[in-house]
Design brief:
The complex is a heterodimer of chains A (271) and B (542). Helix content of chain A is 37%, strand content 24%. Chain A has 271 residues and is α/β, with parallel strands linked by helices. Chain A has one domain: P-loop containing nucleotide triphosphate hydrolases (Rossmann fold). Chain A has a six-stranded mixed β-sheet with strand order 6-7-8-3-9-10, sandwiched between helices. In chain A, β7, α7 and β8 form a beta-alpha-beta unit. The longest helix of chain A has 16 residues. The relative contact order of chain A is 0.16. Chain B has 542 residues and is an alpha/beta fold. Chain B is built from 18 helices and twelve strands. In chain B, α15 packs antiparallel against α16. The longest helix of chain B is centred in the middle third of the chain and has 43 residues. The chains are: A alpha/beta (271), B alpha/beta (542).
């Protein structure tokens, strides 16, 4: 099985993932494949299950049925993952939270090398060098000694990405990466993410930002009511949305006209 | 007659002293006493406050007199048959004085150590109750003629009777007494000369119970108290030779010098007509020292200059000029080193106790956040029990209550008591701080692969510590002040030393100011350091 995944180039393979919180079914059978080197955007209305799905993939939340495989590591339903499975998963998945959650009491560099030293046993000086390299790559090398509260939102996000990349995971999950960025910063981020995918990394980002999706995503999946309802290249899916949820999604966000963007000055009717 | 300065061999078991005074309290263990006494003191203090507020100091037709019912039999104690009444020889003396003045005696309970200050405030007209005739009292109060002569006697364990005969035999040994008394001054002098080590207590019961269990090697106190203790504790022997002699007097405010003159006349008359003798015989306290004292007071024999009381400043039967202030500057110079030493004890004790409280507090808080249900319940019980009962009670239980099982040295008991108590408060601070660390921080750490233990030690703990810093500083300052409570365990820390100083000087003004200055000198830099650390951790977002 593992060989098959690698051969097929799938970094993430989700099959019929369901997750229930109390009486509420948050995920109702999510099927999703993400190939190596892809930047996949996951869109959907708030509460539709995007973040929950990311958390399940990151091993932060157990799911009820179905299966999840990340680069050959398979999570089973209905159970907290075994310690060794979890350990293996941590090397496969990096996560950048919407609010970054940088460790407040540590400098940017410390945030990046913490796991290298304490989880992966990398010697301190080596880990520190790697942290500086990563921060340089992310364009925040000069802020290595700063505490999180001293960083701007964009800087903090770059540090958070560097932290997630420190152990070289094949899959990087991002929750609302553009939520707090102005258009210029958003384009910088897009360029950075493109570089990452070009170097073979796979990205799955939950987002509301259809401009960002159009400009940078290879593929977009729309999640509504805990299911994937629409999927394809951004121009097609966002250009002629088929599912009511996608249309509602596109009608909700006021945005500036951009070159190549669809004119959306239309009544805010829901399907 | 033998001169007073050469005390004759004294037999505490003489016929005169053989009346069996069944004391209900004698049947209680020291542990219960330890708990009951502070409770009584507290109630009485509240009573005093209420009375002082509700009633004028002197009601027409009444002689308000103050004494410490904790001093107990035979001085003043609640009547075992009717606790609303007090009985004791001091009660009888007060009644005698009142009746000659044509007044009704009215008793005002007050803490022993506060009698002088209380009479000066005007809470009552005269203080009675084993009050020693000292130079400090003569300097600041109107003191009556002495009406009872006592001996400072050494009590030791029976097994030591032959080797510890005098104070000189007790070089380097711990000798207990009541703080703020002549006996304590004698011991301090001995200690300064490289002799016995003085250990001060707040009551007259625990010196003897601690002697019996070996915490101290001797007790130096009035023979009246020694006799009382011998009836209570087994296996103790009081040495026949008196270390010194002293007198009990009544104290009045200097502005009542005229009343003091009338009371002196009444006491002299009572010495002549035998009514004082009758009182002391009734209480089994009459002995051969008294006729000699009375003769001196009445002037029928020449006063003996320089009795064995250390550094007397005047003859007990000569009224001193009232209000001549003692040399405060000299007293400050004399006491300052002792105050500094006591402050050192306060700070060392507080630091160690706080260190213990922090370590235990972290353990308790982690257990309450991460532990199983049983552990959580146990730790919650510990926290609630500790926070819900007075630290004074906990100190008493640790030091006196557990003495049968484990004999903790006073400093260790003080450290443990304060440390265990504050650990409960610290743990609550840490618990809420741990719970205040955002969940996202923990999830970020978990996603990176940190184990739960590493999440705690590398992320959650350090962040919680920053949140806990301000309340911790608060607690440390509180602990610094609460450390004064350990004086009940014979540890002489800053407040206790100040009390001793104040008793010696007869005024709280200068010692109180010095004491406050020392506490502030310890707590202010601490608060500042904490503020600086907080500022460093909470720098404004750039």
């Amino acid at each position: 099985m593992e060989g098959a995944h690698v051969m097929s180039g799938l970094v993430l393979e989700a099959r019929g993932v369901t997750l229930r919180r109390g009486a509420r079914e948050v995920l109702r059978g999510v099927d999703l494949d993400v190939r190596r080197g892809e930047l996949v955007a996951m869109m959907g209305l708030s509460g539709g299950g995007k973040t929950t799905f990311l958390r399940a993939v990151a091993g932060l939340e157990p799911f009820d049925t179905g299966s999840l495989s990340v680069d050959g590591v398979t999570l089973t339903a209905r159970a907290a993952p075994l310690p060794e499975v979890l350990r293996a998963l941590r090397r496969k998945v990096g996560m950048v939270f919407q609010f970054h959650y940088l460790f407040e009491h540590m400098t940017a560099a410390q945030n990046v090398w913490l796991a290298l030293v304490h989880v992966h046993g990398v010697p301190r000086h080596e880990a520190e060098r790697k942290a500086l390299d990563l921060l340089e790559q992310m364009g925040v090398g000069a802020r290595a000694g700063a505490l999180p509260r001293e960083l701007s939102g964009g800087e903090a996000q770059r540090v958070a990405i560097a932290r997630a990349l420190a152990v070289d995971p094949p899959l990087l999950l991002m929750d609302e990466p553009t939520a707090s960025l102005d258009p210029a910063r958003r384009d910088e981020l897009g360029d950075t993410l493109e570089r990452l995918t070009q170097s073979g990394r796979t990205l799955l980002a939950a987002t509301h930002d259809d401009d960002f999706v159009r400009d940078y995503a290879d593929r977009v999946v729309v999640i509504a009511d805990g299911r994937v309802v629409e999927e394809g290249v951004p121009a097609a899916v966002l250009g002629s949305p088929q599912h009511p949820a996608t249309r509602q999604l596109l009608s909700q966000k006021p945005r500036t006209d951009r070159e190549g963007s669809r004119d959306d000055r239309r009544p805010r009717d829901t399907d | 007659m033998e001169p007073l300065s050469r005390p004759s061999p004294y037999n505490p078991w003489s016929d005169e002293a053989s009346i069996d005074m069944t004391q209900p309290r004698a049947r209680l263990g020291p542990f219960l006493l330890g708990i009951v006494r502070p409770a009584i003191a507290l109630l009485l203090a509240a009573g005093v406050a209420v009375c002082a507020a509700a009633q004028p100091p002197a009601t027409a037709g009444e002689l308000r007199w103050g004494g410490d019912p904790e001093g107990g039999s035979p001085y003043v104690e609640a009547d075992p048959l009717d606790p609303s009444r007090v009985v004791g020889f001091e009660v009888d003396v007060a009644a005698l004085i009142a009746s000659k003045l044509g007044l009704t005696p009215r008793f005002q309970p007050v803490q022993f150590a506060s009698i002088d200050a209380s009479v000066k405030r005007g809470d009552f007209l005269i203080g009675l109750g084993g009050i020693e005739d000292t130079p400090a009292r003569r300097a600041t109060l109107a003191v009556t003629v002495p009406y009872y002569g006592f001996r400072e006697v050494l009590t030791v364990r029976a097994g030591d009777a032959s080797r510890f005969r005098t104070l000189a035999d007790l070089r380097g040994r711990r000798v207990a007494t009541l703080g703020g008394t002549i006996a304590y001054e004698i011991l301090l002098d001995a200690q300064a000369g490289g002799g016995a080590v003085a250990v001060s207590y707040d009551d007259d019961v625990h010196p003897y119970s601690d002697l019996a269990i070996g915490r101290v090697d001797a007790v130096l106190l009035d023979h009246v108290l020694a006799e009382k203790a011998m009836r209570r504790e087994r296996g103790l022997v009081t040495q026949p030779d008196a270390v010194a002699v002293g007198h009990y007097v009544g104290v009045l405010d200097t502005k009542n010098a005229a009343l003091r003159g009338r009371i002196d006349a009444i006491l002299r008359e009572a010495m002549r007509d035998g009514s004082l003798e009758a009182i002391f015989r009734r209480w089994g306290l009459w002995n051969n020292d008294q006729p000699e004292l009375y003769a001196r007071v009445l002037g029928t024999i020449a006063p003996v200059p320089g009795s064995a009381v250390p550094s007397p400043s005047g003859e007990p039967d000569e009224a001193p000029p009232p209000g001549s202030p003692p040399d405060t500057a000299a007293a400050v110079r004399r006491y300052l080193p002792a105050l500094f030493r006591a402050a050192l004890i306060t700070i060392v004790l507080s630091c160690f106790a706080m260190a213990l409280a922090i370590m235990l507090g972290v353990a308790v808080a982690s257990g309450r956040v991460y532990g199983g249900r049983l552990l959580r319940a146990l730790l919650t019980a510990y926290v609630e029990l500790t926070r819900g009962t007075p630290v004074l009670l906990q100190l008493f239980v640790l030091y006196y209550g557990l003495a049968e099982i484990v004999r903790l040295p006073a400093f260790v008991a003080a450290l443990l008591g304060l440390g265990l108590n504050y650990a409960a408060y610290e743990s609550e601070i840490y618990r809420s701080a741990l719970e205040a660390v955002p969940k996202g921080q923990l999830e970020a750490a978990r996603v990176l692969g940190l184990s739960e233990r590493q999440v705690f030690t590398l992320v959650r703990g350090p962040q919680a510590l920053r949140l806990a810093l301000a309340p911790m500083t608060n607690d440390f300052v509180a602990l610094l002040k609460d450390s004064s409570l350990v004086s009940v365990l014979t540890v002489v820390e800053l407040t206790k030393q100040t009390q001793i100083f104040a008793a010696n000087l007869g005024s709280w003004l200068v010692p109180g100011a010095l004491c406050a200055a020392l506490y502030l000198a310890m707590s202010l830099p601490l608060a500042r350091a904490a503020r600086r650390m907080e500022a460093k951790w909470k720098a404004p977002t750039s």
